[in-house]
Amino acid sequence: MQGEGHKDTPTHGLASVAEGTSPSRQPPGSRREERGPSDQPPPRADLRRLAQRAAAAGIQVIRFCGRASNRCEDESGVFPRIRSDRPADEAESGVGHGFRRLLCRSWLAVRLGLLGCGLSVVAAAAAAGRDVSGSRPNILLFLADDLGIGDIGCYGNDTIRTPHIDRLAREGVQLTQHVSAASLCTPSRAAFLTGRYPIRSGMVSSHGNRVVQWTGARGGLPTNETTFAKILQEQGYATGLIGKWHLGVNCESSSDHCHHPLSHGFDHYYGMPFTLAGDCAQWALSEKRVRLQRQLNHYALAMALVALALAAGKGAGLLPVSWALALGAAVAALLCFALSYFLGPLIVLADCFLMRNHGITEQPMHFGTSAALFLREASSFVDRNKQRPFLLFVSFLHAHIPLVTTEAFLGSSVHGLYGDNVQEMDWMVGQILDTLETRGLANNTLVYFASDHGGSLEAQLGGHQYGGWNGVYKGGKGMAGWEGGIRVPGIFRWPGVLPAGRVVSEPTSLMDVFPTVVRLGGGEVPRDRVIDGQDLLPLLLGTAPHSEHEFLVHYCEAFVHAARWHQRDRGAVWKVHYVTPIFHPKGAGACYGRLACPCSGEGVAHHHPPLLFDLSRDPSEAHALTPDTEPAFHEVLERVARAVEDHRRTLSPVALQLDGSGNRWSAWLQPCCGGPFPLCWCDREGGGDRPTPPDRDL
Q1: 430-469 pLDDT per residue, tens
Q2: Domain for residue 684, yes or no?
Q3: Is residue 185 annotated as part of the catalytic site, yes or no?
Q4: Could you tell me which of 194, 383, 403, 112 has the C-alpha nearest to residue 280?
Q5: What is the mean pLDDT of residues 555-582?
Q6: What is the DSSP letter of 54?
Q7: Sign of the alpha-carbon torsion through 612, 615, 618, 622
Q8: How far apart, in whole angstroms, are the C-alpha atoms of residue 394 and residue 374?
């Protein structure tokens, strides 16, 4: 499963897309439907689709008269029946039969005309601002991991094949200025679920530990935070999460599950409570194993030298110490060496396992079956809840290193293992969409696709690129100010409600999903806290000309690195950078040689005056403006500075969940199947063929 990454192909075949322009694509409805002769009924599938759309629009449709029956029915078998008063023997007669056929065709034409008019009215109502809040559709959310915006066909890539994601864009609304609230997993996902900047919930750090570091750590999404899943659950939705969590598990014991998805509004959870990391496959690209091994080896060497010095001093009579002290130092050195040697397998046991609800099903997890298991869970969840409104959040492990990819997709792309992994994720999207289609749920389901942040530029090894490509945008994962770290794909589809093929070039945020789905589900956005997201429905429907976001602030840990101002009257999107990372080596476009760029300290540059860019003219942030090149330079800086200060005044002091002891491993918090850690092992999946237990039941 560990093939080579793409080499010397930094652009992934990306065609640059100018800001505010529509990526090339087949126009919706470009395939003309073949029409049969006028005396032939429409095909069965066409009638069924019309009936489903009519039902979704609240239009009543009746069946049409049959030939030899005392029941009026159409040949499609999809419309409700009405009873005929004409006797069966008359229906069998030639005159009666001919009359009935003529009547059938007449009624068929009338009803199809009425149906077409009804659907036109629905479309017109949507275009005119029909209020669809509280309409309680099913909600399907796809969130990729570390996916670059330049890795998808509908955003300009013509060499990585993503037909199913591209189809969503053709059939829905594509956002070209969609940004995440953070450039790393944990804070971005916290903001996505709560609709709030992660600093408001404390899901940030102040000294480098920017994500949840261990499954056995105490930090995580606080219990007093409200997720959109919790509100929809209260509104009667079935709520499920499949895949990555990475927002903590326990607080005080290995089984209190205070940060677990089931404590944040999800009825059903299946997936990794941590994240799929390079350490799960013991890759050379390591998040913490290599660093911890280096530290342990230093400790071991130091203790060995201490033991040697104590023994020599004792033997020579120069040190009045006991032999026990020298022996203790030697034992400590041996323990550090042993822990360093076994650290890799211990990390796999501690972090790389699967849970169903509160129980562990695989520890360690089998990477080769995870895609099939996730698809099985998604299908099972839909089948169990298709008679009621549901929220299903599919949080992919793709495309985070170690890029676990099933054999069927290895070698399928021209971009090595990363491209293979993205194409497998696209196939998984298609499989889940097919599940909606076959259950007749597609037209009543709002589908959303995005990534949690930009692709990782530093994920390189031996000249191969294992991270994503961020298109024309500067920077990548971990860089909170530069667009490449936070500009992400954003696609919404809701057939018959959202206009197909619409492209929106207004600033939007992952935080906007919160108020959007809450209002669609009939809930109310909380009024006891600041919600930073905005309802996207008016923008998606085309009834609002502009985004509600005038300003967006971009944090790196607890520090403001940048802010943007959407000056609507001028049509400009200004970006102000107060702090930027110092790229390494000099002249590079990333912080190569480390996991991600830092947020503070010697690795960043503070700008006085701040850097100013006009994203509407310079989306690549290649040309910083000056007072000589931009007459409004000082005006823009002053206006953005006031907005940032106004934003700061809305913040309340909270405990930072990712600082200090809250982000260190604790044995008593470590989930373990089968015994005390490290005696953990279980495999309750049976190779992926076991039937799925009901919700909240292992």
Answers
A1: 999 999 999 999 999 999 999 999 999 999 888 888 999 9
A2: no
A3: yes
A4: 403
A5: 97
A6: H
A7: positive
A8: 9
**One of 6, 164, 178, 246 is an active-site residue; which one?**
246
On the 0-12 / 13-18 / 19+ scale of CB atoms within 10 A, 123 is middle
CATH of the domain at 271: 3.40.720.10
The Cβ of residue 319 has, within 10 Å, a number of other Cβ atoms equal to 15
Q: What is the Cα 49 distance to its own chain's centre?
A: 30
Question: 503-525 burial string, b = 16+ CB within 10 Å, else e?
Answer: ebbbbbbbbbbbbbbbbbbbbeb
State which amino acid sits at residue 493: R
Structural domain range at position 328: 288-345
Q: Is 628 exposed, middle or buried (0-12, 13-18, 19+ CB in 10 A)?
A: exposed
Q: CB–CB of 7/416 below 8 Å?
A: yes
CA dist 532 and 197 (Å) reads 7
Of 543, 568, 603, which one is at a domain's C-terminal end? 543
Answer whether residue 55 is part of any domain. no
Of 675, 684, 663, 689, residue with least CA distance to 354: 684
Is 3 part of a structural domain of the chain? no
Of the candidates 654, 478, 664, 651, the one whose C-alpha atom is nearest the C-alpha of residue 557 is 478
Higher pLDDT, 269 or 92: 269
The number of domains in the chain is 2
Tokens, residue 318: 């120069």
Can you tell me whether residue 296 is helix, strand or coil?
helix
Assess whether pLDDT exceeds 70 at residue 665.
yes
Length of the chain: 698
Residues 302 and 419 in one domain: no
Mean pLDDT to the nearest integer, 230-235: 98
The values of phi and psi at residue 592, to 5°, are -65, 145
User: Tokens at residue 413, please?
Assistant: 């792309």
Note if 246 is an active site residue: yes
Give me 374's structure tokens. 């996730």
DSSP state of 78: -
| CB distance 671 to 349 below 8 Å | no
Residue 656 belongs to some domain of the structure: no
The string of DSSP codes covering 427-459 is HHHHHHHHHHHHTT-GGGEEEEEEESSPPPSS-
Cα 481 from Cα 465, distance rounded (Å): 22
Token pair 């949507």 is at which residue?
A: 126
Give the predicted TM-score (pTM) of the model: 0.81
Tokens coding 72: 């009026």
Q: CA-to-CA distance for 260 and 669, rounded, in angstroms?
A: 13
On whether both 242 and 387 belong to a single domain, the answer is yes
Q: How far is residue 257's CA from residue 248's CA, in Å, rounded to a whole number?
A: 9
**Average pLDDT over all residues of the chain:** 84
Question: 377: which 2 tokens?
Answer: 């869970």
C-alpha distances out from residue 313 to 256, 305, 307, 327, Å: 51, 12, 10, 13
Q: Which two tokens stand for residue 627?
A: 């007072």
Asked if residue 124 has pLDDT above 70, the reply is no
Separation CA 677–CA 417 (nearest Å):
33
Pick the residue with more confidence: 409 or 120?
409
Q: How far apart are CA 584 and CA 227, in angstroms?
A: 38
Q: What is the reported pLDDT for 461?
A: 86
Cis peptide before 399 (omega within 30 of 0): yes
Which single residue is written with the structure tokens 């994503």?
Answer: 468
First-residue to last-residue Cα distance in the chain: 30
Q: Beta-carbon neighbour count of residue 191 at 10 Å?
A: 28
- Catalytic residue, chosen from 65, 72, 185, 599, is 185
